[in-house]
């Protein structure tokens, strides 16, 4: 069974978002549900996040709650197959040709441009 130090040594992904209403920054760990904190500066928010991560893991261990290990990029191949209507395929092919790039590069560009709209 893993102990606190084992989990603290793991590289959990941290999300930092500017709080435009209250000011400062909000930090959360997507793999640790409900583990969230904030700080006036990015540096303060990150320092607080480390403390929050420790407190969250300690509480989970005490309560016997399963702790998810961090997500890893190694779990993803970077490839997926997508079926689309022929008319959309034609439009994407034409637009990518006009831009002078492959359709694959064009689709990656479109996805990255709209990543804030992706479900998290």
UniProtKB/TrEMBL annotation:
An annotated GO BP: regulation of DNA-templated transcription
The organism of origin for this protein: Sedimentibacter hydroxybenzoicus DSM 7310
SUPFAM superfamilies (alphabetical): Ribbon-helix-helix, TTHA1013/TTHA0281-like
Gene3D superfamilies: 3.30.160.250, Met repressor-like
The protein's name in its UniProt record: Type II toxin-antitoxin system HicB family antitoxin
HicB-like antitoxin of toxin-antitoxin system domain sequence ranges: 17-77
Name of one Pfam family that matches: HicB_lk_antitox
